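Hi R.,

Here are the chain sequences for the assembly we discussed:
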Amino acid sequence: MQNHPVFTDNDPQTELSTLNLGPTHPATHGVFQNVLQLDGERIVSGVSTIGYIHRAFEKIAEHRPFYQITPLTDRMNYCSSPINNMGWHMTVEKLLGIETPKRVDYLRVIIMELARISDHLICNSVLAVDTGAATGFFYVMEYREAIYEIYEEICGSRLTTNIGRIGGFERNFNAIAFRKLRKFLKEYPAVLKEFENLTKRNRIFIDRTKDVAAVTAEDALNYSWSGPILRAAGVDYDVRAMEPYSSYEDFEFEVPVGSNGDVYNRYLVRQEEMWQSLRLIEQALVKLEKEPSDIFHADVPDFYLPPKEDVYNNMEALIYHFKIVMGEIPTPNTEVYHAVEGGNGELGFYLVNDGGRSPYRLHFRRPSFINYQMYAPMSRGMLLSDAIINMSSLNVIAGELDA
Amino acid sequence: MGKLTNEELLKKINDKFPNQVTLLGEPFGLITFETGREQIIDVLTYLKNDPALLFGYLTDITAIHYPELEKPIGVIYHLHSLVNNVRVRLKVFLTDDDVHIPTATVLWNGANWMERETYDFFGVIFDGHPDLRRILNVDDMTAFPMRKEFPLEDPNRVDKKDYFFGR
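And here is the predicted structure of the full complex:
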């Protein structure tokens, strides 16, 4: 269907030109190749070629213990890797039947919503760059940096975070982390507002984005879209609201929904989701005050690595450390599907376990992979410049696309 | 929003497809059926279009390989009814010498790449698929790398044998 050959005679008036858009092109923000047939500036047909950074994560995961799979999930959607990490931890916790304390859930909500903000922030500011407004991008990047600094306080790394452990976090949030978080919450709304002033009612931005690549709700569902782009098309499907995980049911938040699924609607939905994420973080901070401040992981010595000092000085800790690392603890022989709302949509983990220490089969339901397949069919008849901003607003992340 | 329970779903499926669909269990509340490839499209169509079920959202298609079973290749569908907020999992097992199954692209356009990925990694041939090519691996690859007979690392290594790791 999307690969049909285009037959033309040699008349220069009717002959189509072929354009290789990608794999490395500054306008595609990642490794994406589309071979386009162009009639002037209009796209007649296109073929997407993917897999340039395929790293066989599903195969590697079959040979690794559960806790070593977390860094693989980092490298899928690297704009919001904490959501991937948390999604994976929650999948394993569901499999093992681990109940996490409320405080862990709320800390996770804070981290996941920060990740969502950084993800949407990149997407919307890059969309502004692609429509010609580079200023906004440089301005808001400072606050992505602020988010990364918060990650750094919590887990020590910035982009590929490997944050948290099965059962909770590797260490408690320190005072600097909370101070940086409060500083971010204080400063960021004004920045987001200013970015919105720059773009939301901007004539040029609206002209470039409104009614571009509009998608009906039927088409979006038919192509199994999820996340902000599905909500922009008018379907209020958000995993956080439909199947709450990590105590999302304790929070008040709205699920913003668009009307016609065009690029402008997707921008608006992402923008509103950032405001909602801020709301969620504020609520989580209030809820944290009522929780005991020294709890940061579930009490599951069978799966949660003990602190290193204890391993050297304490017999039980040494035994548990050995058992965890050598994988001597039996796990249930069953299968589990767990989904979280990632930056781009429903990020699912389908884990089939055979009782060993590594998965028998692990499949990632990657939203970018599934969202991107509509790109070539929907580009037909579109101007090349519109197809570029359409790709920006789909927010396809190459790592998640190819896994 | 009427909440559909797994019991109602089981009853409806059993009434519609007597003896053709077997219940495999409900791990973590997600009801799982097994069926044959002859009726998989009928079952999917029924689940998608029945006004009480409306499993209109195809979450995922993937496969699994159990080399020791008589039918080693399993194709796994995850569907989601957004109206009822219920998920269902369907499995179809195929023999090694006849890895054919009808395509679900007749029901969902989104099945296109999911089936291509499944073909790419497990060699499941989806009959009637419009464009069944490899998707993530290179086109001239001959193996189906997610099958269990393909080792991840050099099989001559002795320090990473499964029995060291409880498997």
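The radius of gyration of chain A is 22 Å. The longest helix of chain A spans residues 102-130.

Let me know if anything looks off.

Best,
T.
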